[in-house]
Amino acid sequence: MTNTLRSFRRGPATPQRVLVLIPGYGDRPEPFLERAAMFDPNEQWLIVVVEPQTPSDRGPYWYNVDENGPDSVALATGLASIDATCSSLLAETGLSEDALVIAGFSQGGALALAHLVDPNSSVTPNAVAALASYLPSRDERLIDLSRASQRPVLFAHGEDDELVEPIRGRSAAKAFHRAQALVTWSEVSGGHRFDAPLTSELASWLDALAAGEQPHAPPI
Questions:
Q1: pLDDT tens digits for 98-109?
Q2: What is the pLDDT of residues 148-182, one digit of tens each?
Q3: Domain that holds residue 90
Q4: Strands 127-131 and 152-158, how do they pair?
Q5: 215: in domain
Q6: pLDDT value for 68
Q7: Alpha-carbon gap, residue 55 to 29, rounded angstroms
Q8: Are 86 and 127 in contact (CB under 8 A)?
Q9: For the chain, how many structural domains are there in total?
């Protein structure tokens, strides 16, 4: 049985919607939760920040990348654990998939996108946000972009990102747009940091979802 991930929470005791937030390579969950007021000031969401599964001296991470791409075993293990965690949260709260949003930063955003389009995922979130991120390369049998059709997907990227070039985020956004996802593409000032203005873009998008809207501003 796949284990659920260690997580940290903030939000209402009886939530109407859940945001699962996935940190990136070397990122600890606590700083992400500390910034929750930046993108959910009114505590409309139960925010659950999961911890990357592999500890290291540089901080926890999800998978390593070499000349052949992501470590396929570690990536699959991370996706299965995220899926199990989301399933457990929905069972605990009594909410449906329509109330679930998955967001991630950097490598965490790559996992969020990969989970949405993975045919092995048992949980399909209502929407996904990828901040300073990309779609990781995988076996084509493990990517079904049609799973993203008509689902809101936010791509927000810093124009001066020194670790993940904006073109990688834009390319993923265009691929999801072609698959008829309701893509919002936003290239903002700044570099590779989970902070404003990336969190401001996330806040506006989450507010729209909470209001029952389906935000859509695809890349040109």
A1: 999 999 999 999
A2: 999 999 999 999 999 999 999 999 999 999 999 99
A3: 7-210
A4: parallel
A5: no
A6: 84
A7: 13
A8: no
A9: 1
**What CA–CA distances, in Å, run from 72 to 6, 62, 77, 113, 170?**
22, 11, 9, 15, 23
User: Cα separation of 215 and 150, whole Å?
Assistant: 11
Q: Does the pLDDT of residue 1 top 80, yes or no?
A: no
Amino acid at 108: G
Give the 3-state secondary structure of residue 130: strand
The phi and psi torsions of 15 (rounded to 5 degrees) equal -80, 155
**How crowded is the C-beta side of 179, counted as CA atoms within 13 Å?**
20
The residue behind tokens 């092995």 is: 120
According to the model, what pLDDT value does residue 93 have?
A: 97
Tokens 């729209």 map to which residue? Answer: 208
Q: 195: helix, coil or strand?
A: coil
CB atoms within 10 A of CB 23: 28
Average pLDDT value for residue range 64-80: 93
- Find the mean pLDDT for residues 22-35: 96
Q: What is the CATH number of the domain that holds 63?
A: 3.40.50.1820
